[in-house]
TrEMBL record:
Residues 180-273 form the Peptidase M20 dimerisation domain. It comes from the Bacteria. InterPro entries: Amidohydrolase (IPR017439), Bact_exopeptidase_dim_dom (IPR036264), Peptidase_M20 (IPR002933), Peptidase_M20_dimer (IPR011650). The lineage of its organism: Bacteria, Bacillati, Bacillota, Bacilli, Bacillales. This is N-acetyldiaminopimelate deacetylase.
Length: 370
């Protein structure tokens, strides 16, 4: 397969982004490609909209797993690409089209030129939500494999093509979604005393929330609590009876997450008392931190040495990734792949450089063979 082939596959996948556990076209596209490969030493198993591809090694004394996520985001693409998303309001704005293509590239090489140990390629759904790594990890389908270590990559728009980056220990943060509903009593704007104003309640909560990290979390333990969306009201002269805020919580230590949630709930109890209202909190999808095993980071660093790939020591990031659940149970690591895009992850104009696909294939395959 040539560079042109991999670019075509990436562009095909880019046009059919699907949300978590709805990746039906994506799964079928991957299965159709897998059917073109030699089947003698390969076994394919599906799980929901995900896929396990097992390639038996020449010796087979251990099993190395590589995971690629396959879902898209609920974002309307705003690029001028010839292969723009064909699904309205859906986009591969986090590079999962790259992730899948790179996995197929490495898998293809290993099927044609088998390695000593067994290789397991995992195409995981729902990384963006509601979270596919944990239920996949707990599935009977995955439990049948005795995995010695596992690894994965994520595209990095801020790094140049030809580079990879990783580090021992914490790479990505613990994350939790945050959804809060406020319920009170609406009414005419001229009679505020007869209402229970939920726009005021939600606004007060937002102000008080800013104190959580600054005054309730150890300053040596990094954390972020951000509200990105607030909804309340319908017209200018009606006081709303309900409001909703949505946000995210991110911490570098697992123990900090429940502390922040406890602080949020304490604030909400005060809001309920002050505004005589009801509140409901939902933490949505929660992802465990990505914590890399130093042994395999060093092995990866050595694997790409004496190649055109440049290894860079990464820094901790507040990014979230449900691959952390797999690393919690299995030794392994994750690394960044430089794709040099002027627009970042989850941006409607994300456009990674396609030259990075071959770099990713080479990096993954070298690690598989090491």
């Amino acid at each position: 397969m040539t560079k042109t082939n991999w670019i075509k596959i990436r562009r095909d996948l880019h046009q059919i982004p699907e949300l978590g556990f709805q990746e039906y076209k994506t799964q079928q596209y991957l299965l159709d490609y897998l059917n073109t490969l030699p089947q003698e030493h390969m076994a394919v198993t599906t799980w929901k909209t995900g896929i396990f591809v097992y390639v038996k090694g020449v010796v087979g004394e251990k099993t190395v797993a590589y995971r690629a996520d396959i879902d898209g985001l609920p974002i309307t693409e705003q690029t001028d690409l010839d292969f723009i998303s064909q699904h309205d309001g859906r986009m591969h704005a986090c590079g999962h089209d790259f992730h899948m293509t790179i996995a197929l590239g490495s898998l293809t090489q290993i099927v044609h030129e088998r390695i000593e140990h067994n290789a397991l390629f995992i195409f995981q759904p729902a990384e963006e939500g509601p979270g596919g790594a944990l239920p996949m990890l707990e599935s009977d389908e995955m439990k049948q494999y005795e995995i010695d270590y596992i690894f994965a990559l994520h595209v990095d728009p801020n790094r140049p093509v030809g580079t990879v980056a990783s580090k021992e220990g914490l790479l990505f943060a613990n994350t939790s979604e945050l959804f809060i509903d406020f319920h009170g009593k609406g009414g005419h704007a001229a009679y505020p005393h007869e209402t229970k104003d939920m726009m005021m309640a939600a606004s007060t909560f937002n102000v008080q929330l800013q104190q959580v990290v600054g005054r309730m979390v150890n300053p040596l333990e990094n954390a972020v609590v951000t509200l990105g969306k607030m909804e309340a009201g319908t017209v200018q002269n009606i006081i709303p009876e309900s409001a909703r805020v949505e946000g995210t919580i991110r911490t570098t230590k697992a123990k900090t997450m429940p502390q922040i949630k406890e602080s949020i709930e304490r604030i909400l109890r005060g809001i309920e008392e002050r505004y005589d209202c009801r509140t409901r909190v939902d933490y949505g999808a929660n992802y465990y931190m990505v914590y890399n095993n130093g042994i395999y980071v060093e092995q990866f660093k050595e694997a790409v040495t004496n190649s055109s790939i440049q290894f860079i020591e990464a820094e901790e990031a507040m990014t979230g990734e449900d691959f952390g659940y797999m690393l919690k149970e299995l030794p392994g690591f994750m690394f960044w792949l430089g794709v040099n895009s002027p627009h970042g992850l989850h941006n409607s104009k994300l456009n990674p450089k396609e030259d990075a696909i071959e770099v990713g294939i080479e990096a993954v395959t070298k690690m598989m063979r090491s």
